[in-house]
Amino acid sequence: VHLVASGGGLVQPAGSLRVSCAFSRFTFSTYYITWVRQAPGKGLEWVSSININTGTPSYVESVKGRFTVSRDNANTLYLQMNNLKPEDTALYYCASFGFEFRYSTGWGQGTQVTVSS
Q1: Residue 30 CA, distance from chain mean position
Q2: pLDDT value at position 93?
Q3: Residues 6+ apart with CB under 8 A from 57
Q4: Which of 44, 51, 74, 77 has the highest CB neighbour count under 10 A?
C-alpha cells in the first residue's frame, strides 16, 4: 500500500489541525490504516487506527476526546486534532497493517506537527 501524509504545520496550543493520508488500493492482507507519531528524541507511538472493513476507530488514551480519525469514500484518511498540546509535537506517519497488527503493509513519509506559542 502506498501512503502519502500531508497537512502538518505550526499551531498554537489549544489550536486545531487536520492531517491527511492518501493511500492506494488496499491489498487483501490490509486490515488497518494507522497514525503513528514520533516526538523529538523519542520512539514511535501509535496514535489512532481505523479498521478498513468495519470503520471502527481506536485511539491512544492521551488523545481521546481531542483527536478524531475518519475516512472518506475514496482513499483518504484524516486525523482531526483539536485542543492541541505541546506534547503532541511530533512527526506524524500514516501506515497500514494486517490482521491484529502483526505486520505492516505500507508506510508513508511523515508530516510534521509542531504545537508551540
Answers
A1: 16
A2: 97
A3: 48, 49, 50, 51, 68, 69, 70
A4: 77
Cα 14 from Cα 50, distance rounded (Å):
25
CA angle 74, 80, 84 (to 5 degrees): 160
Other CB atoms within 10 A of residue 62 CB = 12
Closest CA to 89 of 81, 101, 97: 81
Name the grid cell of 13.
Answer: 496550543
The torsion angle over the Cα atoms of residues 1, 56, 62 and 93, rounded to 10 degrees, is: 10
CA dihedral sign of residues 6, 88, 64, 50: positive
Return d(Cα 48, Cα 64) in angstroms, integer.
9
Q: Divide the 117 residues of the chain into consecutive groups of 10 and give the mean pLDDT of each group.
A: 93 97 84 95 96 93 96 89 97 94 90 97
Distances (CA, A) of 26 to 67, 81, 89, 91: 24, 25, 29, 24
Q: Residue 33: its pLDDT value, please?
A: 93
